[in-house]
Task: structure prediction
Amino acid sequence: MTQHLAAPSTGTSDDTPGHRTGWWQDAVIYQVYPRSFADGNGDGMGDLAGVTARLPYLRDLGVDAVWLSPFYASPQADAGYDVADYRAIDPMFGTLLDADALIREAHGLGLRIIVDLVPNHSSDQHEWFKRALAEGPGSPLRERYHFRPGKGADGELPPNDWESIFGGPAWTRTTDPDGTPGEWYLHLFAPEQPDFNWEHPAVADEFRSILRFWLDMGVDGFRVDVAHGLVKAEGLPDLGAHDQLKLLGNDVMPFFDQDGVHAIYRSWRTILDEYPGDRILVAEAWTPTVERTANYVRPDEMHQAFNFQYLSTDWDAAELRKVVDSSLAAMRPVGAPATWVLSNHDVTRHSTRFANPPGLGTQIRTAGDRELGLRRARAATLLMLALPGSAYVYQGEELGLPDVTDLPDEARQDPSFFRAEGQDGFRDGCRVPIPWTREGSSYGFGDGGSWLPQPAGWGEMSVEAQTGSDGSTLELYRAAIAARREHLGLGAGTDVEWLDAPEGVLALGRPGFVCTVNTTGAPVRMAVPGTPLIASTPVTADGDTFELPADTTVWWTV
Ligand code: GLC
Result:
């Protein structure tokens, strides 16, 4: 497909090469999951035209940038994280012209656009992989992936003991062109997602070219998928007698967080720096510690990395304080902003996470106490938005949506759901299309239903129902994002001050500002720190003291 595009749109403000506005240092970045945001053509699947039409909503929400999960040509074995052509839009999402329109429109509204880049693996329908298979062993294209002979007398065993993150072995055996069983190939995720061999220069060249393609289209940055996975340990060594599931995220693995990945990001950074405006790289890097996460955002590498330690923290004052401190401390030496995130398309929405007992992790299958979950989620959001650095909001959390925990099995599409013993498997619950209107086909998502069923009552949580409604979660987000930026500058800086507070309560000081957070299930009486500005549940200050309700955050100006 060749489409002729007009001159690229390049950034929203100062486009002088070399000029660094640093917009991302304190940005609120909104994640759009294109399948589930808005459906422009009524086929039940969200698309780029749908996103473009709803951009004014995001401007009004007050966010600085929009990160879009993948919309590239893909057989959708992993909802688009299996890319067949990195320079084409999947027809289900639109065309390159739609992408161009989206980027221009966003820039016109003062919003930046960050796209998802998936460099660890391609789709098995990528041209290179299809040819590698068709040409058989010895094909030079096989060297761009990890093909290996199997172990055992007839090569019937996988080359090593690595397991797929989605469950089952990380290797699949191929069939040779003559029909006999052949080599195996590595896939850390689904079998339809073969891992690239990043030692091969053609792979590195191709991704530098893909970066330029999208930078030329005018995007403001890339969220780099599985940034910790590109380089594998020399010789692909066995993991040995370890429980891989326990090690994941807790240790450096032969396939995750290898030091070799950093050279790749240094080379990418030089490309971004050639472009006008202020383009950024954001790492999706699940590492054992915030200190190792900081390696990805050294001054000549990426700009930001997701803070998954924060996302994984339970609703507990002491734990939250610890992770805030360690995150800020880890980022300070490298000069990168800390980032904060509570939800994304891979984990249980935080309103449902906090509706369940602590210690269950980020893949939760039960609805829990929904009222409590929402109350805590609102409080958690106000804490997040009071912290210095950049905050990520996942579509629908501003509506207080819960995870949909009772999707029927036949509706589920998450590939890990179908692979036994995967660590995930229930990610569809946070991907249900969001409600825009109280009534109507798919609650305003589109005119043609919704690719995952929306629960009854979804319309009551819609944008329409919450807009202008005093105390709604949507209005809470709008007020907090506006205050954070316009009046308080809360995203700036690298420090917080912890003020004295009763057990289970946090009192966080910033210049001219205090944020009080009660993570306990009971009200706590404490001294009034200032003038109340925003509260996640209503509070009244009566004299010198006030009662901070259970599971509540209040912002004060001082
Ligand atoms: C990342 C994505 C996730 C995807 C996986 C494989 O973790 O966020 O959705 O399944 O990578 O690409």
About this structure: The chain has 14 helices and 21 strands. The chain has three domains: 23-122+201-474, 127-186, 495-557. Residues 1-20 have pLDDT under 50 and may be disordered. The first strand starts at residue 28 and ends at 32.
